[in-house]
Amino acid sequence: MRFLRIGCLLLDDGQSVMLGKLESLFGFRNNVMDLKRIRIIQGGMGIHMSSWKLAKAVSLKGQLGVVSGTAIDTVVARKLQLGDLDGNIRRALDHCPLKGVAQRVKERFFVEGGKDPAAPFKDLGSWSLPMSRGRIELMIAANFVEVYLAREGHDGPIGINFLEKIQLPALPSLFGAMLAGVHVVLMGAGVPAAIPEVLDLLSQGKEASLVIGVESTSPSDAAAVARLDPSEYADGELPQLSRPHFIGIVSSDTIARSLEKRAPGGVAGYVIEHHTAGGHNAPPRRDRTAQDEGMSSYGIKDNPDFEKIRRIGKPFWLGGGYANPEGLARALAEGATGIQVGTPFAYSDESEMNPDLKSEVIRQVLAGTVSVETSFDASPTGYPFKLVRPEGNHLVTDAVEPRHRVCDMGYLRTAYRKEDGSLGWRCGAEPVASYVAKGGKEEDTRNKVCLCNGLMAVVGLGQVRKGVVELPVLTSGDELVNIGRYLKDGKSRYSASDVIDYILA
Predict the structure, then answer these.
(1) What is the rounded distance in angstroms from the CA atom of residue 49 to the CA atom of residue 69?
(2) Among residues 194, 201, 199, 187, which one has the least CA distance to residue 159?
(3) pTM (predicted TM-score)
(4) Between 280 and which of 77, 198, 302, 383 could a Cys-Cys bridge form, CB atoms 3.0 to 4.6 Å apart?
């Protein structure tokens, strides 16, 4: 049985429209929300750019605040090693229903007063199968912490964003976020068709599994499977969990329709992300040619077919270049529920970007000396990746001599089958000799950038090596050059609230 309740929403053009508030059985038991009321989804920018502080600020304005789940275990572990000076992480852990898990995480990582600034952070090691219990517990706890803090003290909607490409942490990450009552799970960078069923199982306290992609020359190779039984991590009876809504982040109607077929009834809506958005983009739908060199390889085929998207019959939001009143109006005119906004929030006061880096980029935006380019080589994932190019700036890694290759985080590694049938792991950004020794091709290492370490440095948590801190790798969407519109009265900074007020004006 479904109950229909009529609500009223004031749009930006002053028109009052009637909206049905659907309390869907597949959505929530306790966390009921109406996705069709959400005009702005704040992009879940990793690593930790979209922190709980940013997500809370957006949610308090009535929009969907989203935390990034990417590498959040490393983020929480490093912040504990820095002394958790504001006490937020430890306070959240004290509310975690898995008391034993929370306590072990604190004992393992918390350093009273913080570590020596010249000392490196603890090496967590790279993910692998089978996953260690300690790493799984850290991931559960970290995702709980981030969502708990984002939700603390209010009833606004909170989502969490993951990359389908990063598969191994998915199960404990989802479980931890659900323990904190996350309302929405968003996932892109692939076709996350298995995730709706995972959410179903975890919400029922049942074991969930996820097939891990493995590079292999033999189609007969047995699949690698990650599993998580929630009861193994509970001190007693598991708390009742609500199943969050699932929103797929896709680049085209083709991928959206594929998700509909492979996960019928499990997808609540879609973010249609254009290649002008920051971070990873979908590959172009045509091959690059010699004539394309130095030019964008995206064309008309890469524009979404809104008519086909509308036919799916699910709410959708448009991302990439819509962060203004006119952009929102265009999205609504295409039948969208609203828009996804990332880059403007990345440079707001509430984001976790290093303040010095944030200020310098804003200064250069106003001076017209910063640019954004799509790199088809930088990311080890093989996906195109947006890179910010400040002029003459020493704060970003590609402005200095190339980084000495070290792969010690491993979130973007790919599994492959060794000759003996066991699993191995490799990344195009690791030392070249190591990658080739693992059966990889040397050409797949060219111009590859360690995004794990580089993005961690953007939020002030870069690893220390021989007293030297990793330099950032900065990503933003094409919208970066327009963030000056959010500045008021000659100020050089702005808030998340300023962004929302401008768009909804």
Answers:
(1) 10
(2) 187
(3) 0.89
(4) 383
Q: From the DSSP assignment, how many helices (H) and strands (E) are in the chain?
A: 15, 19
> Which domain CATH number covers 55?
3.20.20.70
3-state secondary structure of 441: coil
- State the amino acid at position 357 in one-letter form: L
Cβ proximity of 469 and 400 under 8 Å:
no
Rounded to whole angstroms, the Cα distance separating 56 from 206 reads: 30
Residue type, position 365, single letter: V
For helices 133-151 and 72-81, give the axis angle rounded to 10 degrees: 90
CA pair distance 361, 356, nearest whole angstrom: 9
- Specify if 296 maps to a domain: no
Distance CA 271, CA 281 (A): 13
CA dihedral 184, 185, 189, 195 (to 10 degrees): -140
**In which element (H, E) is residue 417 found?**
strand 414-417
Type of residue numbered 67: V
Mean pLDDT of 311-320: 94
Q: pLDDT per residue over 119-163, tens digit each?
A: 999 999 777 888 899 999 999 999 999 999 999 999 999 999 999
| Residue ranges making up the domain that contains 104 | 4-287+304-503
Asked if residue 249 belongs to a domain, the reply is: yes
Q: How many domains does the chain have?
A: 1
Q: Render pLDDT for 170-179 as a digit per residue (tens, 0 to 9).
A: 999 999 999 9
Q: Residue 359 is which amino acid?
A: S
Beta strands in 418-457 (DSSP E): 423-426
Question: How far is residue 361's CA from residue 27's CA, in Å, rounded to a whole number?
Answer: 40
